[in-house]
Amino acid sequence: MQLGYAFRMYPNGPQRSALARAFGCARVVFNDELRVRETARAAGLPFVSSAVRGKQLTEAKKTPERAWLAEVSAVVLQQSLRDLDTAYRNFFDGLRGKRPRMGAPRFKSRKDNRQAVRFTANARWKITPGGDLSLPKIGDVRVRWSRVLPSVPSTVTVVKDAAGRYFASFIVGIDPAADLDRMPATDAVVGIDLGLSHFAILSDGTKIDSPRFLRRAEKRLRKAQRALGRKAKGSKNRDKARVEVARAHGRVADARREFHHHQLSTKLIRDNQAVAVEDLAVKGLARTRMAKSVHDAGWSAFVTMLEYKAARYGRSFHRIGRFEPTSQVCSRCGVKDGPKPLNVREWACGACGAVLDRDINAAVNVATAAGLAVSACRARVRRGPLPAQREEAGTHRDGQLTVVGISSR
């Protein structure tokens, strides 16, 4: 398995200028190649192979119009051609049903929020003894190392985000045996019901509050966006205000990623041998009046992190269908009594009399639908009023004895 490790970079002024040239050259090569392919497609001609285009690129650097392409590493330009090949391959695989459908490759712009270039081993980049990242035709860039790389990386991608921050992303191979040794042995299983008022409800009755990072940052975001709206279009002050808005959104995204990646998902995988979640229709929910809250929750990213961490650490991951009636079935007796409005947070089963918490009951049903054995007592289900036996001593004259709700907590 290969993973990406990203670290913050701090290039100086000349290095930022060199990286800007690299971003621009890679973008021009990508757009030139895309234009050639689209022209060939419109004329009914076959695509020119990447090997031929690579030779044509080498010749183009000798012309006055494209001589400035020689100012950057040749590997960056070749990787840009490969990126277009990958974009076309993913597009056609989506049409064939081999992967989710995606749009056709589009031209890149210098105003894109994300700029990136990739260096392979052929570029002879290296990590210096002093801890800097030495990149060809850029120099030794200072990097803040937050962890140790588990192995020698094969490639490094330099990324500039909308907030003007630079990151070095390394692709490294990991040792599966070492990862398995890091996780403690456990037989626990858990079903997870995702929500908005509570981000996650576990089948053992644990409710994890939703951090609502975007909602909490709305005041600061509104102030930054109002300042952006007051600036004249095309001015330097507007560019500065745009960066401030991007930084505010970046802080929200970083906090959400920290919550999903480094805290909750790791804890769930460490404490449980098997994890089950529901396949939510996030795109559909994002078109409702709850769109902002749905995007703020970040369910898709969280489920993706759970899935890859389960594969990495030898845990079982289960995804049940979105049409499973998890909120309509009693987790005690299995009787389905129909849908309920969202304002009904607790209900009593008409068959067995159990009083069920809507979210916890759904989490238990998620685990059950995935084939995981979750005991009913873990769901914090309490019994409702039950009729007493006629022969029981001390019953009322109407033959009913009200039993106080008993909770397994």
What does this structure look like?
With 409 residues, the chain is of the alpha+beta class. 39% of the residues lie in helices and 18% in strands. Strands 2-6-7-1-5-4-3 form a seven-stranded antiparallel sheet. The protein has a five-stranded mixed sheet with strand order 10-9-8-11-12, sandwiched between helices. The relative contact order is 0.10.
Number of helices: 11
Strand content: 15-25%
- Low-confidence runs: 376-409
**What is the subunit organization of this protein?**
single chain
Shape: elongated
Mean pLDDT: 84
Largest sheet: 7 strands, antiparallel
Could you say which structural class the secondary elements and strand pairing correspond to?
alpha+beta
What is the CA-based Rg, rounded?
28 Å
> Can you count the beta strands?
15
Strand order of the largest sheet: 2-6-7-1-5-4-3
Give the termini distance in whole angstroms: 41 Å
Helix content: 25-40%
What is the succession of H and E elements?
EHHHEEEEEEHEEEHHHEHHHEEEHE
What does the secondary structure layout of this molecule look like, with pairings?
Elements: E1 2-10, H1 13-42, H2 50-60, H3 74-96, E2 115-119, E3 126-127, E4 133-135, E5 139-144, E6 155-160, E7 166-173, H4 176-182, E8 189-194, E9 198-202, E10 207-209, H5 213-216, H6 218-230, H7 236-271, E11 274-278, H8 282-285, H9 291-297, H10 299-312, E12 316-320, E13 346-348, E14 354-357, H11 358-369, E15 382-383
